[in-house]
Each structure stands twice: as C-alpha cells, then as structure tokens.
C-alpha cells in the first residue's frame, strides 16, 4: 500500500509547517479568489457566483462552508428589504490581506499580456494595479487623478504624495485624465508596456500636463522597468 503526501479525506498535507497548514486552509482551487471578492465588499451568494465566472454553484457552497468552519468567513442576515444571507471576512480572514497583496504583486507581470477571452472585472484591476508601483516614488507627480473606463464599471486611480490607490467608481475632478479602452489595452497602458501617446485601442483625454504626468507614472512601473532592464545571469553560463 502506498501513501500520498496529501490526504484528500482531511484536506491536509499532514506536515508540521506553517506554510503547509496555511495551504490546508486556503490552498484549494477557488478559495483565494473567494477571499479576493470578499476583500472588495461583503457579498451575497449570488454576488459571489456572478463575480467568479466558471465556478460551479455546489463548489462555491462547499468552499464557503469550509471557510466558515476554518474561521475565515462568517455570514449575517441583511436587513429588510434585502432579506438575504451576506458573507464577509472575519478578523482572521482580513489578516490574509498582506499575503494576498504579495501574491498579486508577484503575479503582476503575468497580466502584462492579455489573454483573449479570459474573464475580467474592474475591481480585479483596482486590486492589482497599485502593486505595479510598489516601492516606486510618485510624490513628484501628485496630485493626479485618472478615471478609467473599462470592463464592467469605471474606476478611479488617485496619485498623492503618500502613494497610489485605485477604487471602483468615478471621482468628479476637473483636472482628471480620462482613459477608455478594452481591459488588455488599459492594463498594457497603465503597466507601462504600451506608450500613452501611441497606445492603440485606448482613448486618453484631459489636461496636457496631467497626461504628461500619467506618461511619467506608467514609465516608472515595476513591469516597465523589468522589460527594459538588461537580462543578466549570475554565476556565468550553465
């Protein structure tokens, strides 16, 4: 009889290791994406199903039950007139924020190339875009507001002396730059892999100085920097 490293009956790697035990809780397929959705807002079951294209209804229900059992998610009854069960992250669940952000930051280069018919939601962009500029100094470009029209709803990118943030929704600011286009083109533009002046499929309008600062901002993104940096291999040829 052979043994396996992963016990499918108890969902455990059976390793006395913090990483293995974390994966026991959040390593199942779809689990981190459910957590991603609940970081955006409290959600009804139908909201989660609509925001997770491709997930089977019974699988979503199973993952939610397990997350509740693990103390990551809790539910409450919405007041009238909604009358629905709403899911939200517990305090313990919200402590996954830094880990989730680190994973998004690590994966940022993977979205530089659009993937055709892959699903897209604007709040996914709002979660990931600020990580393009982790550890990048943007104070000299502030204040800058960019209203992005793409996907299922608009979003607003705010650059201030303290850094960069992006939220779903629009801000009414007179000097804002307005950017419109398909998700893949928008990501290429804002990640610095496409030029603000020549990017096909994207419309940009706003005050000339603000557009110039947007161009400077995107040229500083980590992805743009990686693409222009020379490729070196430490330790010589192998």
Report on the architecture of this protein:
The protein has about 240 residues and is of the alpha+beta class. The chain has helices spanning about 20-25, 30-40, 45-50, 55-70, 90-95, 95-105, 120-130, 185-190, 210-220, 220-230, and strands spanning about 45, 75, 85-90, 145-150, 155-160, 165-170, 175-180, 200-205. It folds into two domains: about 20-95, Arc Repressor Mutant, subunit A, CATH 1.10.10; about 115-225, Nonspecific Lipid-transfer Protein, Chain A. It has a five-stranded mixed beta sheet, with helices on one face. The protein has a three-stranded antiparallel beta sheet with strand order 1-3-2. A hairpin with a 7-residue loop joins strand 2 and strand 3. The chain is globular, with a radius of gyration of 21 Å. Mean pLDDT is about 90; it is low at about 235-238.
Catalogue the unreliable spans.
Answer: 233-238
Task: Report the principal-axis shape.
Answer: globular
Mean pLDDT figure: 88
Q: Per CATH, what is the topology of the largest domain?
A: Nonspecific Lipid-transfer Protein, Chain A
Question: What is the count of DSSP helices, taking H or I runs of 4+ residues?
Answer: 10
Strand order, sheet with most strands: 6-5-4-7-8
What is the CATH-assigned architecture of the largest domain? 2-Layer Sandwich
């Amino acid at each position: 009889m052979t043994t396996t490293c992963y016990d499918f009956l108890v969902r455990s790697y059976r390793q006395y290791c913090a990483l293995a035990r974390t994966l026991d809780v959040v390593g199942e397929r779809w689990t981190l994406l459910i957590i991603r959705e609940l970081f955006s807002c409290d959600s009804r079951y139908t909201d989660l199903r609509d925001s997770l294209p491709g997930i089977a209804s019974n699988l979503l229900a199973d993952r939610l039950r397990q997350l509740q059992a693990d103390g990551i998610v809790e539910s409450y009854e919405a007041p009238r007139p909604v009358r629905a069960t709403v899911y939200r992250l517990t305090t313990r669940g919200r402590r996954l924020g830094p880990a989730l952000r680190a994973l998004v930051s690590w994966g940022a280069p993977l979205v530089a190339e659009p993937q055709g018919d892959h699903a897209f939601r604007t709040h996914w962009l709002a979660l990931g875009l600020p990580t393009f500029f982790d550890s990048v100094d943007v104070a000299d470009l502030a204040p800058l507001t960019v209203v992005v029209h793409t996907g299922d709803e608009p979003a607003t990118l705010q650059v201030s002396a303290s850094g960069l943030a992006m939220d779903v929704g629009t801000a009414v600011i007179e000097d804002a730059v307005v950017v419109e286009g398909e998700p893949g083109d928008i990501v290429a533009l804002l990640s610095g892999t496409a030029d603000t002046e020549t990017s096909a499929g994207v419309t940009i309008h706003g005050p000339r100085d603000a557009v110039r600062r947007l161009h400077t901002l995107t040229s500083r993104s980590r992805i743009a920097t990686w693409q222009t940096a020379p490729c070196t291999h430490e330790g010589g040829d192998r």
